[in-house]
Amino acid sequence: MQSSVNPPATGLERPAEVPDVVAVKRHYGRWAAVVVLAAIALGSAKSLAQNPQLEWGVVGQFLFDGQILEGLGQTLLLSVVSMVVASAIGLVFGFFRLSANPVLRTLGSLYVWVFRSVPALIQILFWGNLALFAPRLGIGIPGTGWSLVSAPTNDVLSPFAASIVALSIANGAYLAEIIRSGLLSVDEGQHLASSALGLTWWQAQRKVILPQALRVMIPPAGNQFITLLKETSLVSVIAGGDILSHAENISGYNLRTIELLIVAAIWYLAVTSAATLGQNIVERRTSRGAGQQKRKSKAEAARTPKEASL
Amino acid sequence: MSSVDIVNVHKSFGDNEILKGIDLQVRQGEVVCLLGPSGSGKSTLLRCVNGLVMPDKGHVSVGGNLIGRKVHNGKLHDLSGKEASTQRERIGMVFQQFNLFPHLDVRDNLMLGPRALKLGGKAELEDKARHLLGKVGLANRAAAYPSQLSGGQQQRVAIARALMMEPDLMLFDEPTSALDPELVGEVLDTMRSLAQDGMTMIVVTHEMAFARQVADRVVFMADGRIVEDTTPHLFFDSPETERARAFLRLA
Q1: Which of A128, A266, A308, B19 is most deeply buried (CB count within 10 A of its CB)?
Q2: Do residues A242 and A74 touch, judged by C-beta distance below 8 A?
Q3: Cβ proximity of B200 and B28 under 8 Å
C-alpha cells in the first residue's frame, strides 16, 4: 500500500475556482404546507368551538360522570378479559394450524376462516340474541335429550358475558394467525436441538420455541389489542355496558348525542394513546435486548481471534 | 455387544430414496467417521440413530433398545412422544448450525435439558455445567449469550450442552462445516479429547485429517449405500472401490 504513490497531477482539467462551503438546503415547500395545514386546523377548531349546536359545557360536565367512568371501567375490563381469552384460544388454534394431524389442522383453518370472515358486529349481535333460538343453555348428550345442567340463556349469558364471548372468539382467530406466524419464525434447528436433548413436545414449546416466538408476536399482538379496545364499542348494540353504551344511555334522555359521542371519543383517544405508548415501550425493550446482544457481539468479535489462539 | 446396531434401514423423502438398505454396527467406545459426498444420506442415517428421522423399513437399536419403535404382533409400532424423548436423553447430538438457544445464556443453555428432565438439583447441575465449560475451554463465558460467541465457541458450548445429559453415545452432524477455517481446530480438539475419554462417537465429517487420526473405523457412503467400511489406514491409503478413490481425489 505504502509503496504505491500517486503520480503528480499534471495535465488535469479542473474547474477554475471551487469553494469548500456546501449550501444549506431550504425546504420552502414544507413551510408552505405547514401554513396551509395550520390554517385548516385553526378553521376547523374555531368552527367546532363556536358552533352554537355544540355545548362544550355538556362535554365537560359528562367527561368525569359516574356512569361514563363506570362504562370506561367496563370497556377496559372487556378489552383485557377478551384479550386474555382470545390469546388462549389463539394459542390452541395456532398450534392446531401447525399440527401434523390433518384433523386438527383442518379444524384450525375452519375456525380462522369463519371467525375472521364474519364481521365482529354480526358475531356480537348473534351472541347477544342467542336466547332467540336457544332459550336454554345446558350440558348434555346431543340427540338423547338428556342433560346434566341447564339454565335459561338470558340468566347465563348477560349482555356483558355475551360481549366477552363474541370478542374473544372473533379476536382469537386473529391471534391464532399471529401466534402461528410467530411459531413459524423460530428456526427448525431449535426443534431438532430440543428433541435431541430429550425434551417432550410441550417442554420444547414452553422453554425453547415460545420464548423466541414471543419476540416476533409482540408487535402484531399489541396492534390487535388496540384494535380490540376500539372494537369493544360495537357491544353497545347489545347494551354490553361499555362506555359507548353508557354514553348512549345518557344521550337517550338528555338528547345531547354529539356531546356524549365526543365524551366517549375523548376517552377512546386517551386509552388507545396509553396502549400505544405501552406497546412502544414493550417493543423497544424487546428489540433493545436483541440490539444490545448484537452490539456486544461486534465488540466480542474484535476480541475473539486473540482468545481463540490461546 | 454392539452399542449401535443399524439393520436394513431404508428411508425416502417423497420419491427420493435417501437410504437404500443400511447395515452398520458400532461398538461401545468406538469412534466411527461417516464420509461421503453430500446427498449420500450420511446426515439422514445419523438422525435415524436418535429417532429424529424414523426409517420406512428396518430398525436401529442403541444399547439393545429399539429406537422410536416397539414390536407388537409381529410389526413395528411408533413409541409415544414421551417414550421416544426419554430414549434421546442418553444420545447426545451436535449440529452443523450449533442450534444453541439464542434467548438463553451459555449456562442456561447447558442447564435447560437436565433441568427440564429433573436429572439433578440446581446446585449440582451448576457445578457440572461449570466443570464441562472448563473442559471445552470456555469456563469464563458462562454468562455470555450465543450471539456474543464465535462459531467455534458456540460449537464447543453445543458439545458441553450435549455432555450435560451424560450421553452413552455422541452423534456429530458435520460439526465444523459452518465454521471459519481458523476455528475448526478448537472444535476438533474438543472432539479428540472426548474420543480419548472413551466416548462412543459417530461423526459425519469432511475433515479427512480428523478421520485419519481419530477414527477407529471409516464408513464411506455414496447414493444411500455403504460402499466401504474399513480402518482409516486402509481407506485413505488403499481404497478398494473406484467410488472411494474418486471421492478421495476430490477431497
Answers
A1: B19
A2: yes
A3: yes
ipTM: 0.92
Section A215-239 average pLDDT: 92
The structural domains of chain A, with segments of one domain joined by +, span: 59-139+146-286
Interchain proximity B88–A308, CB inside 8 Å: no
Fold of A59-139+146-286: MetI-like fold (1.10.3720)
Q: Answer whether B78's CB lies under 8 Å from B85's CB.
A: no
> How many CB atoms lie under 10 A from the CB of residue A124?
25
Pairing of strands A147-152, B75-78: unpaired
Pairing of strands B200-204, B169-173: parallel
Strand locations in B29-148 (E): 31-35, 57-62, 65-66, 69-72, 75-78, 91-94
Q: Give which of A19, A75, A4 is closest to A271, Cα–Cα.
A: A75
Cβ-Cβ contacts under 8 Å, A218 against chain B: none
Q: Is the Cβ–Cβ distance between B95 and A181 less than 8 Å? A: no
Q: Determine, for residues B89 and A197 on separate chains, whether the beta-carbon distance falls below 8 Å.
A: yes
Is B87 in contact with B54 (CB distance < 8 Å)? Answer: no
Query: Does residue B68 sit at the A interface (CB-CB below 8 Å)?
Result: no
The answer to whether B49 and B4 have CB atoms below 8 angstroms apart is yes
pTM (2 decimals)? 0.82
Interface contact A197-B186, CB threshold 8 A? no
Neighbour-count burial of A230, counting CB atoms closer than 10 A to its CB (0-12 exposed, 13-18 middle, 19+ buried): middle
Q: Yes or no: say if B31 and B215 are a contact pair by the CB < 8 Å rule.
A: yes
Count the alpha carbons within 13 Å of A232 in the hemisphere toward its beta carbon: 35
Nearest in space to B172 (alpha carbons), one of B53, B45, B55 = B45
Q: pLDDT tens across A166-196, in order?
A: 999 999 999 999 999 999 999 999 999 999 9
Residue B173 C-alpha from the chain's centroid: 5
Burial label for A32, CB within 10 Å (0-12, 13-18, 19+), is exposed
| Shortest CA distance from B50: residue in chain A | A196
What percent of chain B is modeled with pLDDT above 70? 99
Residue A138: pLDDT over 80: no
3-state secondary structure of B16: strand
Task: Measure the CA–CA gap between A196 and A175, rounded to whole angstroms.
Answer: 30
Q: Measured between CA atoms, how close is B235 to chain A, in angstroms?
A: 31
* B contacts of A298 (beta carbons < 8 Å): none
pLDDT tens string A36-89: 999 999 999 999 888 888 888 888 999 999 999 999 999 999 999 999 999 999
φ, ψ at B59 (rounded to 5°)? -150, 165
Interface test with A, best of B52, B85, B180 (most A CBs within 10 A): B85
Rounded CA gap, B81 and A42, in Å?
67
CB contact under 8 A, B145 and A293: yes
